[in-house]
Here is the input.
Amino acid sequence: QVQVAESGGGLVQAGGSLRLACAASAAASGVIFSIAAMGWYRQAPGQQREFVARVTRDGRIEYADSVQGRFTISRDSAKNTVYLQMNTLKPEDTAIYYCNADRVATEEGVFGAWGQGTQVTVSS
Here is the structure.
């Protein structure tokens, strides 16, 4: 199985910045051969979970229109870690941010995984 752990959430004023991190790990052997993609999603109270940003194994990056130009996703493949730099934050960015690891190849098989989520709160 694969585990994903997020960190870096918190409370910030509108216009401020936060950086989220997400690390994937293989629970049994500890060896990850490859990850097809890692990305961020968010869910605000009373709303459905929505896509934020994603980076694929070959480096292709996608952003939701609502965060384009303000958020930057990056990755450290050696550490199986992805980051989300969030600048010029707005109150509407307030949500629980979830990390997803897609098609993680390990000695035990290929798995997908979601993290537990990290709260981001932007005050006006």
